[in-house]
Amino acid sequence: MTDVIIVESPAKAKTINKYLGNKYTVVASLGHVRDLPPKDGSVRPDENFAMDWQADERGNKQIKLIAKALKGAQTLYLATDPDREGEAISWHVRSMLEEKNLLRNINVERITFNEITRQAVQHAIKHPRDLDQPLIEAYLARRALDYLVGFTLSPILWRKLPGSRSAGRVQSVALRLICEREAEIEVFQSKEYWTITGQFKTLRNIDFSARLTHFEGKKLEQFDLANESITQNICQEIIKTSYAVQSIERKQTKRNPSPPFTTSTLQQEASRKLHMSAQTTMRTAQQLYEGIDLQGETVGLITYMRTDGVQLANEAIESIRTHIGKNFGKNYLPGTARKYVSKAKNAQEAHEAIRPTSIDNTPDHVAAFLTPEQKKLYELIWKRAVASQMQSAVIDQVAAVLSNPNQTALFRATGSVIAFDGFLKLYKESSDDTDKDKHSSDASTLLPTMKEGEEVSLNKLNPEQHFTQPPARYSEASLVKKMEELGIGRPSTYASILGVLRDRDYVALENRYFIPQNRGRLVTAFLTSFFKRYVDVDFTANLEERLDNISNSKLNWKTVLQEFWQDFSKAIEQTKDLKISDVIDALDKDLEAHFFAPSPDNPNPRKCPACTDGILHLKLGRYGSFIGCVNYPECQYTRKLIAEESNDNDEKELIEGTKLLGKDPQTDKNVYLKKGPWGLYLQLGDTDSEDKNKKPKRSTIPFGTNALNLSLEDALALLSLPKQLGPHPKTQETIQAGLGRFGPYLKMGGIFASLKKGENILDITLNQAVEVIDQKLATIRTLGLHTKDNNPILLRKGRFGFYLQHNKTIANLPKDKDETTLSLEEAMQLLKDKGKTPSGGKKKPSTTKNKVTVKKTKKV
Fold this sequence. Notes:
It is a single chain. It is globular and about 110 Å long. The chain is built from 23 helices and 32 strands. It folds into six domains: 3-131, Rossmann fold, CATH 3.40.50; 141-186 and 475-595, Topoisomerase I, domain 2 (Orthogonal Bundle), CATH 1.10.460; 192-256 and 394-467, Topoisomerase I, domain 3 (Distorted Sandwich); 263-391, Topoisomerase I, domain 4, CATH 1.10.290.10; 648-719, no CATH class; 779-837, no CATH class. The chain is of the alpha+beta class. The strands form nine sheets. The protein has a six-stranded antiparallel beta barrel with strand order 7-8-14-13-10-15. It has a four-stranded parallel β-sheet with strand order 2-1-5-6, sandwiched between helices.
């Protein structure tokens, strides 16, 4: 008799099973076991927001496995992830088991742990709790809201804006941020300004530079030196005089370490330092959390990676401080432990920050057991956690003011030096283009030793021209940071939101920056024109706060839903009479600066190039948006806005046939994007001129991928295929992910399964792969062994119905034959009578010879 523990993933089940042994049966739910059916009426506002739940084939299968494991058990432990989604999965599992009357005489307990270690799991089992009802209600409210927005707003998009894909409660606001930033860049007017830097020399012939800050008693603002003429006139005046040190200011500043990682800060720093996408970061962190095999023992290396808390457990702090004192010395250890408080809006801080489960597992110690991605991310997490408890860095700063005799010109020279490196000895935080802080550089800049009144000589003046720069586009790091600051969405959802925007072709990621595509701009313009409130940043943030208050028992979840639906349904009702012409006129006006921006080459972009008096206007067709002439049908000029989802356009743009993407850091070989006779492909390394038969490794590119925007990281990931994802939890057979001639696939033994359209082969996890394989296995049934060779006869379901397979011989099942009652003997007879071997696409050579008619001639 064993108790049963339910976790989410097979990897976690495997790790926990090793810790607990035979006293427990650990079963994976493989994520959610049921969800709202994707059809109208799954959430019914008129019935007090009644919700229908439906389990798919995989969910029902997992519940059957759990039910089987429960036979004879006394306690069911629900040990899904320690967050809102984890609480919801536990609730769904319990509800489905209760509906089937499978929990009689079984005690149900909820347990959670922030790290997957032997001690943490055993402690959780000894301290169970009830399911957190407010957290479940917060999940129900979010799920209902997302469903109502998606299934109510998306159909309007499809009808009123053909070619659009979907709208989402948080997704649409994130898209709006990207589009508005691009609009700012497009209308930005660069402005000229100048600066003057002097090259000085001390009496001891030591060179240094200083910048002109004041002229004729006035502090110089950014645009005071507006052009070259003004700047040169000032230079001519101030170059003639002598200079001396007017004053010297010395001060010492401290720079404190950053807190340990939260979900969002980990995504930001991994993007900036490691060039990892948010999805790659979360996938890799999940692997580190669920467990890595270290010399025969599976160990979770980091704590739970979905958190907005920055605090650390006391025992973790003590172990880190012990490590610092032992390995860095007492100078690097503060007198008291550092305590951190989150500054993020709506931070719940339900869990610890992301940290190593054991500080003794140093990056060097575990490196041999990790993949390159795991190694880099673990090192980042480990160093950040340790540095967060180290001593502050001390920086000596010196500023000298230089002046001419009548003080009409003042120059300022600054210098700094790191007097004590503190935490910088271990970790330096990076910053991106939109977040340049005063500590972005740690390099020391020394000034020569000077004293007040000392004369210095001005050798040269360097006037320099500058232009103001537009705001930078959002990178993944800066967008995640912005969303967290605004309180939009939850950090655990950011990776999937950004992935959806790319998958829908609403945005493209070029050189690690988001660029909105025309489809995305049209959707944003439509939503801001007709549903402005629901893509408003403040409204979304306030709604997010109300949803959080449900989990804190401060608000009733159905009251929040009712208040939202009351106004949202009215806004939807108002669009029923909305004409396509009204939509297109609004979009044409809103996006005029984008689609019809004047330029020196085309001062009148609205003028039709095909007719004399035609005006170009935004139009909507059956398959999407385009630009056309108002004189249609007399003038049939059109211009596409949105490219087709294919690699054809990429092939046309790759004029040279080859594009160098970078170098593989592992092999130091070049990575190329190339154009061949059958399309674009990737290649690792150059063709060996000495051995033409030794071909470099190549990879196809998944259909629908914008090949020209492929990053080096994604290219290397594609070239690494096929890759092993891990063992199937039931069969222990290895599941492999690969890319074939018909697209991405999964393979387990002789079983192949294709991925659905839109699923990224690079982001597929073992949990998702198990789900796909199980769905495939559900279409295959072994009827028995053939008497001829003892090999199995399989009943499989294909696109045209059921068929039998024995080795390479297949036979279609007659339409009048019930597959559920088919016997082994009937199957063997069908294979004998109707069996055929697929040709594999190869045409069999003809066995009939051409007849040659020979005409006989009679001898004369």
